[in-house]
Amino acid sequence: MLFHHKEKVILIYLYCLIFFFGAILGSFAHSYLYRFDENHTNAEVTIFYPRSFCPQCKNQLKSWMIIPIISYFLTFGKCSFCKKDIKFNYLSYEILFGLIAIFVYITSDAEYIAFINLCFVVLIFLQISLDLKYLVLSTSLSLIIIVLGCFKNFNSLMMITESLIGAGIGFLFLFLINYIFNVITKKNGIGSGDFYLLAGLGSFYGIYLLPFVVLIGAIVTLAMHLLGITKGKVLPLGAGLGIGSYIILVTQNYF
Ligand SMILES: [Zn+2]
Questions:
Q1: What pLDDT, in 10s, does the model give residues 109-140?
Q2: Cα-Cα-Cα-Cα dihedral sign, residues 247, 19, 203, 198
Q3: pTM of the entire structure?
Q4: Which helix (H) or strand (E) is 27 found in, with range?
Q5: Spatial CB neighbours of 131, under 8 Å, sequence gap ≥ 6
Q6: How far is the CA of 60 from the centre of ligand 1 (A)?
Q7: What is the average pLDDT value for the chain, to the nearest integer?
Q8: Which end of the chain is more exposed for a tag (fewer CB within 10 A), N or C?
Q9: What value does the CA radius of gyration of the chain take, rounded to a whole number of Å?
Q10: What separation in Å is there between the alpha carbon of 86 and the centre of ligand 1?
Q11: DSSP string covering 174-228, please?
């Protein structure tokens, strides 16, 4: 009985830790998108640079001030320098990704897979946001997804081969469609960002799941277009593929 109780306590600690880790990633995601918003004309935006600062008074934040959630409550939701309110947006990202982290942990087969899946969810979230907001996809984020896919399938040579072939086919598939489109119409139908994103998804899911990713991604893209969640005439293929990849992540055991 006592042992049972102890196990429960440890589990609660574990979930808190996972929630907190997810919150850190959520905080990174928020800063990345915020920085992109501020200076998306220059390409100097990364997850780590420039260092976090208060959007209102531009003071650089001290290390303890970037601790997710806790710092928000320690400062009563205000900047320590200019005393202006910190946008609630920050906190909502942290809480959202904290909860996502717990969900991913519960639904993943192994601990290291959960870690990789969570990073994947965050990276795809960034790509979806960039595509819907600016009609761009980050090539460097897609390259990280390719590497992540290789790590996920690292346990056997067979799987890592499937991962690499998946990346190659993912890239070539959209590249060729665009090439043919270009020959016929003399303009690009698909952005090169989409090639890299599908390469990332091919690496992550491997060659057998890739067709399902493309199919569901295409359906989601069309649905978004018909529902009017798009900018102008351009189809947000990247966002569609991203959302499609989430659907595959949750349902892949049924394929
Ligand atoms: Zn401030």
A1: 889 999 999 999 999 999 999 998 888 899 99
A2: positive
A3: 0.88
A4: helix 2-39
A5: 137, 193, 236, 237, 238, 239, 242
A6: 9
A7: 87
A8: N
A9: 20
A10: 8
A11: HHHHHHHHHHHHSS-SS-HHHHHHHHHHHHHHHHHHHHHHHHHHHHHHHHHHHHT
8 A C-beta contact, residue 75 and residue 91: no
Q: Encode burial over 17-56: b for 16+ CB neighbours within 10 A, e otherwise.
A: ebbbbbbbbbbbbbbbbbbbeeeeeeeebebeeeebebee
Residue 56's alpha-carbon distances to 52, 53, 170, 228, in angstroms, are 12, 9, 42, 34
Task: Name the β-bridge partners of 78.
Answer: 85
CA of 32 to the centre of ligand 1 (A): 19
Question: By C-alpha distance, which of 233, 245, 209 is closest to 128?
Answer: 245
Q: How far is the CA of 91 from the centre of ligand 1 (A)?
A: 16
